[in-house]
Structures are given as structure tokens and as C-alpha cells.
Amino acid sequence: MAVGTVLVTGGTGYIGSHTSLALLENGYDVVIVDSLYNSSVVAIDRIELLCGKRPAFHQVDITDEAGLDAVFKEHPAIDSVIHFAALKAVGESGEIPLEYYRVNVGGTIALLSSMTKHNVTNIVFSSSATVYGDATRFPNMIPIPEHCPIGPTNSYGRTKSTNELIITDHVEAQRNNLRKAGKPFEQWNGALLRYFNPCGAHPSGIMGEDPHGVPYNLLPLLGKVATGEREKILVFGDDYDSKDGTAIRDYIHVMDLARGHLAALNHLRSTHPGVQAINLGSGRGSTVFDIINAFSKAAGRELAYEVVPRRQGDVLDLTANPALANEVLGWKTELTLEQACEDLWRWVQNNPKGYRQEPPAELLDAVKAKAKAA
């Protein structure tokens, strides 16, 4: 008997696939909806290879409320949602902001509307540390706590902060309306997970990040430099007030992040807290040059880079204060930046074309042998 059934939006994407795996490994049934706009259905096969269970899959766009209704109708056991589906590139969001609002905000409204119709009452939302904007504008806010004032500096971050408000308003309204009617209300809950920079890959080497087109994030770009697909990495600014002039970020291994979503879901289901914003991070800040050096070490050679002007909307320091997650969720990061680089390099080296190729036979054999032993 499953612990529960979870709808994972964007579940074939990078973080969504690793979280779906963690849910299945911990007794949940999983239903994935994804448009496959920036992901691959092959991720479903890899999830099944790793845990022996296959999530249900529906190719549905997050803005398609009728499509979401059909999924909830087909899977009446769904009682919770983990919501990843979104466009996610900071730079691109400044070029096509309307599309980011249409998909990210419109999609969340469609999802909440459909959830309400089908009495699905728990939502874990994949938010972002970008909602804080430049936390250095306030005293004593680095590392960043959840009570830091919100002030995103780019369109992507603004879609995330808008979604946080929408989810908060909706969950609180549902609770208030039910309370006034003398009905149970505690079943409506939301966790707003503000996390920092996901990195790494599954340690097996058969599941990782496979963005279509040019990736926008530092580590996947470094992977392409390491395989020779790209000549160099661009470093956006070396005149920040940091130890080496480059921006500081809190990097979190995707396996730790997946566990964080599982912990948040369990927290909602067991304690019914209403809506809570919670940081997921390591609490350790790393500069861009720290990352380049760590990945160069994992790859066994120096990776080329070029310093270019800062990007619009970038800030000096996004390092989490994860104390609330440690306390409330009983969760903390366990894996290091070095491990993340090693795992990412194993994925990139063995899957230079991502999911558009079969991984090496010896990797698959190792995974199958491990699954058989378990």
C-alpha cells in the first residue's frame, strides 16, 4: 500500500526526476505531468531502472487546466502536488517576460484551480532564492533567512514571488472558508521551498540534467566545456565584493534537494502547518571561481573561462540560512560541492548527448545488478 499518491509537475525535468525517484523509493506512488518542452520522457525509463517502479506519465502543459483536470480524474488517489513546471532561466526571463508570466504564473493558477476542483489540498512549490533579490541591501541578512524582505531583481524571480503570494492567498482562503463553514480545514497546506543553486546528478551516472539547446546554468555549461562541446565558460563579472571578485552562490546537490522536497511533503501531511516558506540550502557560499576550480579538478583538467560584464539582475551573494529546514523538516544537506562536481562529471562524461543516447553498457549493468541485489 502506497504512503500516498503525488502529482509531480515538471517531473521529467532535472529536479523533478530526482524528486520523483526519491518519492518512489520512499513508498509514494507518483504521477508525472510534463510538456517535455525542456526535458525528455527517457527520464521515466531511468527512474524505473534505478528503483524498479515506474511513475505514471501524462504529456500535459501546466497552463492546460482541462488537461490537468483529466489527470486528476484518471488518478483519484492523488492527494498532494509537488510543483516544478516552469520556465527557469534568469537571463531569458528578461528577454521574454510575458512568456515567463504566462507559463509560470498562469500555470500555477491553472494547477491550483484544478487541485481545488478535485479536492487535492497539499502543494509543495519549487520556489527560488531569487525571490530575495539583493539581500546585501539589508544589514545582517547574509546568509539569507526566510524573514529577509522579498525583492526579486529579474522577471524569473518575480514570477516565483508572485506564485508564492498566489499559493499563500489561495491556501489561506480555503482554510478560512472551511473554518467559517464549520468544516475541517487543516488539510489545506503549502510549502514554498526557496532554494539556491541545484547541481550534480544521480551518482549512478544514468540520470542528470539534460537541457535542450544552450543551458543557462553554470555547471551544465562547465560540463559542455569539459567535453569539448563548448570552448569556454563566461564569467559574468569579476568586480563583486567577494574574495575573488565573482558572485557567491549556495550550491546544493540535486540528491539533497530531492530529499528536501520529500521532507517538506511529509511535513505538510503530518503537521498541517498552513503555508510556510522554507529555505533549502547548504549555508555555504561558493564563488564562481570556486565552482570552476572544483569542476576542473573533477574533470582532471583546467577549464577555459572568459570574464565578461555582469548580467542584468545578478546580485553579489545568494547564500541560504537553512536553520528553519534543519529544525522544522529535520533536513540538512549531506553532500559536498566536490561530490556534486564528481557526480555531474560522471553523468556528462558518460552521456554527452544526455538522454538522446544509451549510457555505456557497464553503467547500465552496474545499475541493474544493484537493483537486483536490493
Structure description:
This protein is of the alpha/beta class and 374 residues long. It has one domain: NAD(P)-binding Rossmann-like Domain (Rossmann fold, 3-Layer(aba) Sandwich), CATH 3.40.50.720. Helix content is 42%, strand content 15%. The protein is built from twelve helices and 14 strands. It has helices spanning 14-25, 42-51, 65-74, 90-95, 97-117, 155-180, 218-226, 254-271, 288-299, 323-329, 337-350, 361-373, and strands at 5-9, 29-33, 56-58, 78-83, 122-126, 189-195, 197-199, 233-236, 248-249, 251-253, 275-280, 286-287, 305-308, 317-318. The strands form four sheets. A seven-stranded parallel β-sheet has the order 3-2-1-4-5-6-11, with helices on both faces. A three-stranded mixed β-sheet has the order 12-9-14. Strands 7-10 form a two-stranded parallel ribbon. Mutarotase converts alpha-aldose to the beta-anomer. It is active on D-glucose, L-arabinose, D-xylose, D-galactose, maltose and lactose. Its EC number is 5.1.3.2.
What would a concise description of this structure say?
Belongs to the NAD(P)-dependent epimerase/dehydratase family. In the N-terminal section; belongs to the NAD(P)-dependent epimerase/dehydratase family. The protein is α/β, with parallel strands linked by helices.
